Amino acid sequence: MAFRSPVPDYLDEIVESLADDTNGAVADYIPELAQADPDRFAVALTTVDGRTYSAGDDDVEFSIQSISKPFAYAAALTDLGLDRVLDKVGVEPSGEAFNELSLEGESHRPMNPMINAGAITTHHLVGGPDCDPDERVQRVVRVFSALAGRELRIDDAVCRSELETADRNLALAHMLRSHGILAGDAAQVVRGYTEQCSILVTVRDLAVMGATLAKGGVQPVTGDAVVEPWVARQVLGVMTACGMYNGAGEWLTAVGIPAKSGVAGGILGALPAQVGIGVFSPRLDRNGNSVRGLRTCRRLSADMGLHLMEAEALGAGALRSVHPGTLPDVGEVLVYELQGIIQFRGAETVLRELEGASESGQPVVFDLARVPGLNDVGRRMILEAMRRLLLADRRVFLVDPDGVLPDPDVGDGRRPEIVPSASSTDRSH
Amino acid sequence: MAFRSPVPDYLDEIVESLADDTNGAVADYIPELAQADPDRFAVALTTVDGRTYSAGDDDVEFSIQSISKPFAYAAALTDLGLDRVLDKVGVEPSGEAFNELSLEGESHRPMNPMINAGAITTHHLVGGPDCDPDERVQRVVRVFSALAGRELRIDDAVCRSELETADRNLALAHMLRSHGILAGDAAQVVRGYTEQCSILVTVRDLAVMGATLAKGGVQPVTGDAVVEPWVARQVLGVMTACGMYNGAGEWLTAVGIPAKSGVAGGILGALPAQVGIGVFSPRLDRNGNSVRGLRTCRRLSADMGLHLMEAEALGAGALRSVHPGTLPDVGEVLVYELQGIIQFRGAETVLRELEGASESGQPVVFDLARVPGLNDVGRRMILEAMRRLLLADRRVFLVDPDGVLPDPDVGDGRRPEIVPSASSTDRSH
Amino acid sequence: MAFRSPVPDYLDEIVESLADDTNGAVADYIPELAQADPDRFAVALTTVDGRTYSAGDDDVEFSIQSISKPFAYAAALTDLGLDRVLDKVGVEPSGEAFNELSLEGESHRPMNPMINAGAITTHHLVGGPDCDPDERVQRVVRVFSALAGRELRIDDAVCRSELETADRNLALAHMLRSHGILAGDAAQVVRGYTEQCSILVTVRDLAVMGATLAKGGVQPVTGDAVVEPWVARQVLGVMTACGMYNGAGEWLTAVGIPAKSGVAGGILGALPAQVGIGVFSPRLDRNGNSVRGLRTCRRLSADMGLHLMEAEALGAGALRSVHPGTLPDVGEVLVYELQGIIQFRGAETVLRELEGASESGQPVVFDLARVPGLNDVGRRMILEAMRRLLLADRRVFLVDPDGVLPDPDVGDGRRPEIVPSASSTDRSH
Amino acid sequence: MAFRSPVPDYLDEIVESLADDTNGAVADYIPELAQADPDRFAVALTTVDGRTYSAGDDDVEFSIQSISKPFAYAAALTDLGLDRVLDKVGVEPSGEAFNELSLEGESHRPMNPMINAGAITTHHLVGGPDCDPDERVQRVVRVFSALAGRELRIDDAVCRSELETADRNLALAHMLRSHGILAGDAAQVVRGYTEQCSILVTVRDLAVMGATLAKGGVQPVTGDAVVEPWVARQVLGVMTACGMYNGAGEWLTAVGIPAKSGVAGGILGALPAQVGIGVFSPRLDRNGNSVRGLRTCRRLSADMGLHLMEAEALGAGALRSVHPGTLPDVGEVLVYELQGIIQFRGAETVLRELEGASESGQPVVFDLARVPGLNDVGRRMILEAMRRLLLADRRVFLVDPDGVLPDPDVGDGRRPEIVPSASSTDRSH
C-alpha cells in the first residue's frame, strides 16, 4: 500500500463536514451568477514550494469577481510604482460596504483598492495612462495567467450579464471622474473592470495565485518572479487591512490569514511564507462572503496554525553550537554551527555569541551546513560579523556546502576562506 | 579588540540620525507630561531569545499611557476568557480619534480595546467582576511587571495630574455605564485606569514586554509563560487592526509591525516570532504618535526586514535530502533528512516526498538532527506520517539527538524506533 | 412732484451698500457660468398682491440652476400627488453637501428634493412615468413659465456646457437606478435635469415665482392657481428644512425666509402670505451661495420684519366691538363688529365673546364690513357660531358689504339674514 | 340655552377619538416616570389673546422634561444675549438621537439647545457665569412661572429618580467640560438640569407658555413681556429646526407647528402670532415622542389651518378703498381707507396706490379706523409715506380713532393733522 499524505484526507474531511451547511444564498443581482449550482464546494491549498492539494469540485471554474482586486492592484503597482498608485487609491479600511463611495476627505481617493471605487480606479491604472482599454484587459488577463500558471479566460456571458446591471459601478466611475481620480471614459472603464471580474478560475488557480503572493511574488510552480517582493508585501498588507468587507479586526484575530472574497463564492487566502488558499462555495452570507468558504478558512487557521500572529515553537535558536575544532593547516579554531533559515533574529544570536566570546584571537569558522537559506538581513548581518572579525585581525572560515551564502564579500573586498568542513574537537554535543 | 555586535551600532546610528528631528510637540493637556524633556530619545529591541539591545536614553522612565492598553487587554483575556471579553469590547478599527466613543451599533460595545472607551472597559474587566478596585490595579501592575521582568511602579504625580483633567475619560465611563457596559463606579474605574496609564517603563521594558507577546506569551528572559499563546495572538491581532490611531492600512503596509503608541511619547512594537521593540521620544505628531518613534519603526522595518508580510528567502525546503542508508541490524533504509523548524509547510514537504516514493517496503528513517524544533502542526503531521507508514507495515526509525520530538507516540501507542544515526550510503550530497 | 414709494429707494440702497462686497468667486466648474460678469447684482421683491419692486441689474437673465428644484418639486407633486413623490424622495435635511448621495437607510430615497440626487429623481417624476423625456422638459418649462407669468426659455449654451462636466449627476443617476429609485435612462434623465437647470430667469421672475408659492400657489399677477395650496405649502416647508445647503438652523433663526440658492448666483425667497424675493449676484461663498444674495436676504429680513417667526404687533383683536344696535323691523340687536382677516385666532375671539354673553335671547348681527377676508377655518367657525345661535332660536343677521362670506349656509340649509348695516345705539366707541 | 363655543367641543372630540390609541409605551428608564398612568390624555390651546381651551386631564401635572429646553434657552438668551449663547450652543439640527454628543467640528459646541448636550450647556448659561447653582435653578423656575403665569414647582421624587440614572447626562457634562464648553462642576450642573426637567406643568401651562412665545414674548394673560421679541423668535426658530428629534422636515411639512416633546409625554406647540398648544399622553413612540400627542398636533394643524406655511385667503388687501371726500375747513380730499393689521405687505399696497395717483396736489387722508394695529415696519412705512407727501407740499390728515399710530412724527418733527373722520363723497363702495 502506497503512502498517502494526510493533507488531502484533511481537506476531504473539511469538505465533507461542511457540506451540510446550506446557509446563505447565491448572489442574485447578476442573472448569470444566480444560476450557479449552490452545492458546489471546493478547497485548495498550495505551499510556497509549489505543491497544491485540493478537495471537492476543484476543477469547476467560476468568475473571480472581487478576488481580482488584489491581483489587479499588484499589476497596477508593477506598472506604475507605489507612489503613483497611492496618489489615486488609499490603503485604509473603509468601514463601509463594498459598493459605497468611501472617498477620502481631501484627496477624494477611494479608501482602498478592495472596494469597488478603488478597484475600478486600480483597473484603469493597469498598463499606465496610455494603455488602450482592450490592451489593459489583455494585460490583466496576462498577469493573472502568469500568477496562476495557466492561460485564464473571460466568461463572456457573465460579463455581459453584469454589464446589464452595472449602474453602481457606472455611478462610481462617474463620481471618480468628477473628482479627477479617473481619466478614462466611464462606460469603457466599467466594461474593462467587469471583464476583469469575469475571468474564470478554479480553487486550484486561486491557491497557486495566493501562494505566489505568499512567496514574495515568485510563482511557486513555474518559479517566475511574477511581481516584485515589495508588490506582494503591499498587496498582502492591503488584503489584511481591507480584504474582508466587514470585520477586519475579527478576521485578523480569529483567522489571521490575509484574504479576499468574491461574489461568485470564491475566497482567496495567502499566508506569507507559507501557503496560498482557494475556496469556492456560492452561497453567501449577508456581507457577501461565502458561508462555507469562511468556515473553511477558520478551520485551516485553527487546525494548521496558519495565522499571521502565530509564534508557537519558534524559540529554538539559530546557533546550534559553538565548539572548538581543528582545520588542516590552521590548527585550533572556534566553530559557530548555525541551523535553520537565518533572518534577523537568527543572525542576531550568532552576533551575540561572538560578542560574548573571549578575545582569544582564535580563528573562527561559520558552519552553514545546516542552514537552508538566509534572507537579505541575515546575509548582511553575517557578512558584517565576518567584516568585524577580519578588521580585528581574526581569520575567518566559511563552511557552506549548499552555497547558501554565495559571493561572501564582507563589503571591502575581503572574504572568508572557504573550507569543506571543520572537525570538531569537542564531542560533547 | 573584542568583537562588537553591529546591532547596537545600528541602533546608535538610528538615534543619532533622527535626533535632529524636533518636529511635533510634547503633549500639553496633562501638566506633568508637559514637563517632559522633549529631547529624550531612546530605542530598544528584544529578540524572542531574550537579548535586549538599546540606544539613547534607555534608562529614562516614562509613563506607559496608552501602551498599557494591549497589556491590560492581555490581563483581561487571561482573567475572563475570550468570550466574556468580546461581550464587552470589540476588535474592529474605529476610524475615529482615540477619545471618541465609537460604540458599536446594537451592542454598545466599544469598538476595540485600543480606544479609551474600550481601554476603560478592559481595565475594569481585569480581575473579574468581584475584584476590588485596588486589587485590580495591583493585578495590572503585577501582570505588567511579569511581562517586563522587573517590578514596575506607578508615578503618583503623573496619575494625580491626569486625574485633574480626566473629564473625557469620566465622560466615557458614564456613557459606558449608561449602556450597561461598565458596572463599576465611574470615578473609581477612571482612577484605576489612570493608575494603569501612569505605570513607569523604559524602552527596554517595552521591548521585553513586546518580545513576550512576540514569543506567544513566554517572557524571553525569565522563561515564564506570562500569558497563554492564544492571548498573545489575540492581543497582537488587535494591535495590528487597531493599534495606530489613524492609518491602520498605511501602517500595516509601510511598516508591518503590530504596534501601540502612548501620549508620553512611547511606542511599542511586537513582531510575532521575532522581536519586541520599544521607542521613546516625547514630541508627538497631530495624531498623538511620537514623531521620532514612528520614524524609528519605519527604519527598523525597512532595514531589518521586520514586516508581517515579509516572505523573502523562505523558499528553502524542510527536507534536506532523501537518501539510501544503512542501519546496524536492519540493513538498507531510506533516510529522510529534515532541516529547520518544522511547521505545516515543512512537514508537508516530507509527506509529499513520502507519497511520491516507490512502494519499496524499505524501512524509513526520519533524521531530525538538523531540526531545532517543530510546532504543534508540524509534530502532528510527522507523527501521522509515521503512523501511516507503520500501518503499511513499514519499519520506522527516528534520529533525534536533540529530543525535538519527545514521546513520539503516533496515536495508537506505536512509536518509531529510536536510533542514534543512520549512515548514508549515498555520498553524493 | 409725484409721490415715490420708498420701497424702490430701499432696494436701491441695498444694492448700493452691498455693491462693494466683492467676496466670493464665480462658479468655475462649468465654463459657461465661469464667464458670468461677477459684478452683476440685482434684487426684486413681489408682494402677494402682485406688485414687483426691483433694483440693480433686474433685467439680466441667468440660469436658474438649483433654484429650479423647488419648482420642479411643485410640478412633480402636482402630477403625482404627495404619496407617490414621498415614495421616491424624502423631506429631511441631509447635513451634507448638495452633490452627495444622501440616500436614506432602508428606502434608499434621496434625503430631500433640494440635493442633486433628490432633484434628479424629482425631475424624472414630472409628468408621470409614461412621460417622454422631451415632453417632460417641456412640461417643466411650461410650469416655470406659468409661475413666472412669461415664457421662459432654456439657455442651450449653458446646458451643453454643463453636460460636458455632468459626471457627478451621472453618478447620482446611476446610483439611483441601482437602488430602483430612478427608472429612466441615466444619461437622458441627467440631460433633462440639466435643461431644467438651464432655464433663464431674471430676479423679477424669481420674485414673482416666489410670490406664487407665498400666495398658496396663486400667481399674484395673472391670478392663475398654478399649483394647489397644499403643493405650495409642501414646497415651502421643504425649502425651509432643506433649502440652504448648510446651516438650516442658522438660516431659519437669523433670516427666517424659506429660500433656495443656485450656482449661477441666484437666490429665491418666499415668505408665506407676504412676498417673493429674487436676488442675483454671481460671486459665491464656500457653500455655493451668492455672497451678496445672502446679505440681501438678511437685510430684507431684519429691515422689513420678513421672518417666519415674526409675531410683532399681532395682539390686536379680530373683534372690534360688541355693541347694542337697532335693525329696522327687528328692533334691538347685539352687533358683533369684526375686523381684519379672520383665521382661527380671529374667529375664536368672536366665539369666546358669544359664549360670555348673557342669555338675552336678543338677535345677533355679525358685521363683516371691516373684514377683508376669512380663511377656510375662519369661515367654518363663524358659520358654526351662527348655526349654534340659530339652534338656540336666536335670530342671526349678517352685514357683509364686500361679500367676504358668500353662500353662508350654516350646514343644515339655514342661513343668516342679510342686512345692509346695523345702526349702533351705543356711541361710546 | 347659552351659546357654547365649538372650540371646546372640537378639543373634546380629539381627545375622544384618539383615546383608543394605546400604541407606544411609557418611558421606563426613570422609575418615577414608569409609574405614570398611561391612559392620561389632555390637550390645551391658548390664543395670543390669552384665552385657553382644554380637554381631558387638563389639571394633571407632569414633569416638563425636555420641553424645558426651549424655555431655558429663552432664559439664557435673555441673561447673556445672542452672541454669548451662540458661542456655546449652535442652532443646527443634529440628525442624531437626543442623548448623543453631536458636537460641532471645530467649536465643539453642541449642535443645538434641544439635544441634551446643548440643553445641559444652556442650563448652565442661565443667570450668567457668576450665578450660584441653586440661584440658577431658582431663576429657571421663576422664568418658567412667569411664562406660565403661575408658580411652578419641582417634583423632588422625579428629580431624585432621574439623578439615579443620570449617567448619560453626566457623560455629556464631562465631555463638555473636556472641550471647555462647560465650566461648572459636572455633577452639580447635571443636578440643576435635572431639577429643571422635573418642573411640574399641566397642558394648560404648556399652552400658555407656548402662546407667550407665539406672541413675541408677551404673556397673553398677564400681559407681561417675559422675554424680548428677538428671544421668542430665536427660540421658535430653533424649535422649528431642531425640536422634534427625528424628522424635522417631515414635521415642518406635515404639521408646520414649532414644537418640542418631553419624555413624560408632554408636547409643546407654538405657532407665531396664533396659538400655544399643550398636549399630554405618556405613551411614547420609538423616537420618544408622545403617540397621541403627535396625532393631536397633526389634527390641530390639518383641521385648524395652523401651519407655518399656510397662506390661504390672505390675498385681501390692506387698502380698503381710495375715494374722494371732504373735510370741514379743508374741502376736497383723497381718502386712503386702510384695513387689517398693517405689516410690510399692507403698507406696501398703500404706498403703491399713492405712487400711482395723479399729481393732483389734493390733501390726503389716511383713515385707520379699520386698522387694529401696525407692526414696526408697517408703522415706519406709513410714516415715510406721510413724510414724502409733506415734502411734496401736500397736506396730510390722519383718522385714527383707536390710536393705533400714536405720536405720528414722520421723522423730521412734522406730523399729519389729526381729524375725527372724513366724509366720503363717493358712495360707490
From TrEMBL, chains A, B, C, D:
List GO BP terms, alphabetically: glutamate biosynthetic process; L-glutamine catabolic process
Task: Indicate whether Isomerase appears among the record's keywords.
Answer: no
Give the catalytic activity: L-glutamine + H2O = L-glutamate + NH4(+)
Q: Name one GO molecular function term.
A: glutaminase activity
The UniProt keywords, alphabetically, are:
Acetylation, Hydrolase
| Residues engaged in binding substrate | S66, N116, E162, N169, Y193, Y245, V263
> What does the similarity note say?
Belongs to the glutaminase family.
Q: How does it assemble?
A: Homotetramer.
This chain belongs to the protein called Glutaminase
Which organism is this entry from? Rhodococcus triatomae
Recall the taxonomic lineage recorded for the source organism: Bacteria, Bacillati, Actinomycetota, Actinomycetes, Mycobacteriales
